[in-house]
Amino acid sequence: MEPPATAEIVRGGSPPKVSKMNTLWLVPDNGEPIHVTRDKAVVGRAPQLDVVVNDPSVSRTHAALERDSDGSWLVSDQTSVNGTWIDGQRVIKAVLRAGQVVRFGAVSFRVSPEKPEPRAKPIVGPLTVAPPPPPPVDGVTVRNPAVVPPPAVTPPSTVPPPGVMTEAHASELLGVDPDAPRHEIRKRYQTMHNDFQIRITNAPTAALKRMYQKNLQELKTACEVLAPGLLDGSGV
């Protein structure tokens, strides 16, 4: 059962994160970040909107983003089916702050005041190819005993055995540093877990539902790799 929607206080108090942002970027877990260039932008599944999120859990007109006169950004839910969420709390209207996770339906974005650095791609060194043998003469292969090609050197494999998840892979799946504190890992896991539960509920096909269930299992494995015992309560 979904918790009731709540309206976050948009003025006053001592917010834990800075709300004033000159620019607004929505950074997904996978894919390219989205730069919100208009002072008023509508988010939803409809193709003509400013920010298009093509996911079955997102309503055609889901939420609105608006830059206030003081430089802060507001998000307003537009009576969506699956709600608008900030750091796991459903909201009607709230201030966006850098570092928060805003979720439309089952699709999450990290709020950033600047374009994030592109993810580094692994560098693959050149392959060593042994020279071909000399052509045969009258059906006999001529070999020069004075020229012996060096044996091919096979670099040590960095690929883990099948079914074994590395800390680097787990960190990438959860979107946290490998040495992140346990409470941060738990918070990130719970946010993504809720995302996938909504995706599973709204999956239009059985194949898509199975894929989301597999993603959810990988998410649990990643959490266990980075913080053993966190989910079953046995960890310290």
The major β-sheet equals: 6 strands, antiparallel
What's the tally of helices?
3
| Proportion of residues in helical segments | 10-25%
Rounded mean pLDDT score: 78
Category by helix and strand content: alpha+beta
Query: Count of DSSP E strands?
Result: 13
Cross-sheet strand order for the largest sheet: 2-1-11-10-7-8
What percent strand?
15-25%
Computed CA radius of gyration, to the nearest angstrom: 25 Å
Order of helices and strands: EEEEEEEEEEEEEHHH
Provide a descriptive summary of the structure in words.
With 236 residues, this protein is of the alpha+beta class. It has helices at 167-174, 182-202, 206-226; strands at 24-28, 34-36, 40-44, 51-52, 63-67, 73-77, 84-86, 89-91, 93-96, 101-104, 107-112, 136-137, 140-141. Helix 2 runs antiparallel to helix 3.
Quick structural overview:
The protein is of the alpha+beta class and 236 residues long. Helix content is 21%, strand content 21%. It is globular.
